[in-house]
Amino acid sequence: MSGYILIVDDNPNNLRLLIAILQERGYQIRPANNGVRALSTAKKQKPDLILLDINMPEMDGYEVCRQLKADPDTADIPVLFISANDELHDKVKGFDVGAVDYISKPFQEAEVLARIEAQLTILRQRRQLAGILNSSLDGIMAYQAVRDPEGHLLDFRWLELNPAAAEMVGKKREDLLGEHLLTQFPFLQSEGIFADYVQVVETGESLSREHYFSQFESWIQMFAVKLEDGLAVTFRNTTERKNLELTLARQAEQDGLTGIANRRVFALQLTQEWRRSIRSQKPLSLIMCDIDFFKLYNDLFGHIQGDTCLIQVAQTLMNQARRSGDLVCRYGGEEFAVILPETDAAGAKEVAEHLAQAIRDLALPHPQNAHQGIVTLSLGVATLVPRRGEDETELLLAADQALYTAKEKGRNQVQVFAPNDQHES
Ligand SMILES: [Mg+2]
Fold first, then answer.
1. At 117, which helix (H) or strand (E)?
2. Residue by residue, what is the 3-state secondary structure of 141-171?
3. Strand pairing of 377-384 and 284-291?
4. Tell me, what's the pLDDT at 254?
5. Measured in angstroms, how far is the CA atom of residue 48 from the centroid of ligand 1?
6. Which residue ranges of the chain lie beneath pLDDT 50?
7. From ligand 1's centre to the CA of 55, what distance in Å?
8. Separation of alpha carbons 309 and 212, rounded Å
9. What pLDDT, on a 0 to 100 scale, did the predictor assign at position 368?
10. How far is the CA of 90 from the centre of ligand 1 (A)?
């Protein structure tokens, strides 16, 4: 057996007997024959366990135990009383001052050994647990419920937290132990975390949640389980993974060349705005536009400059569509689309004219474009107040029809869809 035990007894015969028994079992022993010596020895070289006699001259065992418990350096050393005082009130007093066990004299050797070994086992397990907590990369906190006399859960008190948890919240363990959660972090109330914790304690159901804490500039994955009248929460900082996910999600919505929204986002957004418009019965407008003679531009300057031209046009369209609900996207090739929610035909035509002018203002040379020798757009505008039973394809077809008309009529212009156009062409 391993373990370093301090034996305190004023009777030399008792001391000798206990030392003999315990040394034979392989324990390391330090004796002390009075209370003062016991205290100084315990502080100098902290034992795993103290066997403490009660009846001693000058300072009795109760007082020794009280002083041990009052000193943070020695407070956590388990104390076993070993005494001839066999009355119940002696034992109660022993536990009151902080002992973990009480052995009556005269003692049975086997009983003493069993009780010592039981305490040392608890101690080893507690050290293992502390090792796990201290080395864990996950933050771990344990809280106890704070209730009012009617039993309502008002707050939580910190019972334990490991170094990773302390680092996550930027506080010292000693500054949080025993403190109230909401006093330290009032924002947990408004962010719904406190309500989640209460639910775990009141229902016994565990909870898993990922939350962005702006206070810590971090995404934190939390896992909370009920622990007696309180809970234990494991925290993992997932900021890096979350940022990667967000980047990937953004990339999935972006056109790889121009960086503006892609056709997938366009389709989703158009469907969404169409539905919104059915409900609100406000007009929804769509502009489809196309770079004039872009194939000739590519043939003359090559694809690399062609790509540069697409990027410049895309960025210019983006800069022009300033309202937050408007969406500019690359529809494909040299075609772009602009969704304009709650915009009537006149408003949409105005936006389209602005876009056309903004591209002309870029004055990108395009010798093959007969008009002005610069890059220009053809634009088709359609506006509908959707009716139930129709779908967004109606709007898409209408804008496409108007774009076709703009090209037919000589390009570098805006055409607005009129229902009769379909019959004319
Ligand atoms: Mg004695």
1. helix 109-135
2. EEEEEEECCCCCEEEEEEEEECHHHHHHHCC
3. antiparallel
4. 92
5. 22
6. 421-425
7. 4
8. 39
9. 87
10. 14
- Cα(15) to ligand 1 centroid in Å equals 10
Q: Which two tokens stand for residue 126?
A: 């507690």
Alpha-helical (H) ranges within 218-284 are 239-253, 263-280
Q: How many angstroms separate the alpha carbon of residue 33 from the centre of ligand 1?
A: 9
Model pLDDT, residue 1: 61
Query: How far apart, in Å, are the Cα atoms of 272 and each of 63, 266, 284, 337, 344?
Result: 77, 10, 11, 15, 18
* Single-letter residue type at 310: L
Cα separation values, 354 from 266, 331, 358, 379, Å: 21, 19, 6, 11
Residue whose entry in the numeric block shows the structure tokens 């989640």: 196
Ion ligand 1 neighbours, Cβ < 5 Å: 10, 53, 55
pTM above 0.85, yes or no: no
pLDDT at 249: 87
Q: How far is ligand 1, taken at its centre, from the CA of residue 119, in Å?
A: 22
Instruction: Extract the tokens encoding 236.
Output: 């993992």
Domains contained in the chain, CATH given: 4-133 (3.40.50.2300), 139-240 (3.30.450.20), 254-424 (3.30.70.270)
> Residue holding tokens 């919240």?
169
